[in-house]
Design a protein that fits this description.
Order of helices and strands: EEEEEEEEE
Number of helices: 0
Mean pLDDT: 95
CATH topology: Jelly Rolls
CATH architecture: Sandwich
Shape: globular
CATH superfamily: Jelly Rolls
Distance between the termini: 23 Å
Number of domains: 1
Radius of gyration: 13 Å
CATH class: Mainly Beta
Number of strands: 9
Largest sheet: 9 strands, antiparallel
Length: 105
Amino acid sequence: MSEFNDVTVVREANVYFDGKVTSRTVRFADGTRKTLGFMQPGEYSFDTAAAEVMEMLGGEMDVLLPGSTHWKTVTAGESFDVPANSRFDLVVKTFADYCCSYIEA
């Protein structure tokens, strides 16, 4: 899906890591939410409350998911799942344009 229809976008940005990671929250009529974001090159760790599906729209990153000892390279057109109440690590090589879908239980 290249565009979202009939949504509400939260005007204020979510800003992390001194502005190297930013996103905007998109809310859907059915109550689901996503964030559309951009990461500059760097190393990042994130904690989750809800389960997430991270879709790479552009760029490249290496991901270390909970319970894994192996880094996985993710590029545009690929995605990965993150369990709820966990932590995952990222190494962004060039940039990362992403869409994160939150899976509320």
